[in-house]
Amino acid sequence: MSPITNFEPEKGKSLSRHSIKPLQYRRIIKKYLPMLYVIFLLIPIYFLVCYSFKTESEIKNSITPIPMLGTLANYKAIFNDPQSYMAFINTLLYVLVNNVISLVVAVPGAYAFSRYSFLCEKHLFYWFLASRMIPPATVAIPLFQLYSTMGIVDTHIAVALAHCLFTVPIAVWILEGFISAVPREIDEIAQLDGYSFPHFFIKILIPAIAPGIGVTVFFCFIFSWVEILLANWLTTVDAVPFGSIILRAGTALGLNSLGWLSAMAVLAILPGVLFIYFVRNHLAKGFALGQIS
Amino acid sequence: MLKPTRNSSFFLILPALILVGGSSIIPIITIVNFSVLDVFYGNSFIWVGSKWFIQVLNSKDFYYTLLRTFAYSAIVMAIEIPLGILIALSLPRSGKLVAFYIIAIAIPLMIPLVVVGLLWLLMIHPQWGSLGVLLSLLDLRIDINNVIAAWSVIVFVDVWHWTSLVVLLCYSGLLAIPGRYYQAARIDGANRWNVFRYVELPKIKRVLIIAVFLRFLDSFMVYAEPYILTKGGPGESTVFLSHSLMRTAVQQFDLGYSAAISLIYLSIMVLFSWILYKLM
To answer: Facing residues of B40 across strands?
Structure first.
């Protein structure tokens, strides 16, 4: 081969190598980054689940990635102690009350925002969203006073009402998007068919936006379930959420109840994970609410 | 689409309005009330004008706390927003793994705030925690009594917890971009950066604004995680506004002073949300 013909492909090769190299990096990143990120997210949770199946001495003496002497003692301890398991029931109760209230008021509200224009419509919509800017810490004391004059401090109703501060706006926001996606002709046809307004809501509108309701409940559930500041502050004995118990036990981490705490934590994570599994197909739409509004 | 005007539909919103107003407007009015009054024996109120505000604005502690909160917000957002966009870009848009990725990525968002704190408190323990032991093998001991270590832990935990929100929001924005946009970009000879800059970024701008908003608001209200992880220590170095406010209000029961802080806190939130909104 002549040196020239030898030279030509060499040059071409080096050129193409230069232009391909960053591409390859990119392909590698694209291939492995999501997986790495997911592993990074799930590892601590995996270890938490492990801890919850270990005995106290096993946690403190050996760091094994799998529980060697799998024990259910931690979970049994929680289910045998009324104070611990009632904390979960309390949380579930106020979250349920909150979600029902939020949905009942948010569906008509979202319908109005989606279908009609009226006095101060835009302002009201933004005012709803602006209540997201209120730090719970600033309203804690006034809410406590308000609820104690109403005589509902330390009840599930109090926490459920307080959580409406952020669940109702998010519910109105999400539902507005879903209702706007339902063609308005349906309203008119229902009217012509002689449906009364409440009838139309229950029989036609709500089935039409069922996925939207699912997504809304999901978000309201999560926001209310994870909140601790108000829930802790508004309860003392009868309606104490699991968060307060973990807060009390966790901040005094001198600790000889790590397994028990881990089991509490696992039980606290469980409902959210179950829930996410049920709404997984509609979740992307829920997160896409940015484009809708 | 033009919507018909019907003012009576205001009544449909009224229940929601009353509920949200009941837990926002009424407390805020109460705070305004407290911020100009002094309380004696729990029942006699005296007008003190701007005394509490002057006291707050002259207190060094308040400025330090405010500065810390801003620093925290800025650091956390500077890490989470780019990282979230990067991961959202690298997620597959279709295929079998998508559902798995979405569920796995959303899991941290479902975890109660106290549990996030507890989880990482267990993880970083130098004797029992897996991460703590791993790091101590590398001769790195996480000493929560060191200011830099405490801050790194808190920021790290926040990144672990909240980057997913940015990822999911951006991902849902990216999914909405039609394939022909990419084809057009390829015909124009755009490289990857140009595709991102001129096709993807404008399209995800709206969700990105929402992500920035939510991250700003939440990081500025942060309470439970630092409270559990460091208890505000060492010294005051990880006390943020919500924590400091709860301390003044609940432990010292200093109503007027904490009401003044609350109002300033609230106006900062609104002001900065407005600035963010105007900037973007």
So the answer is: B44
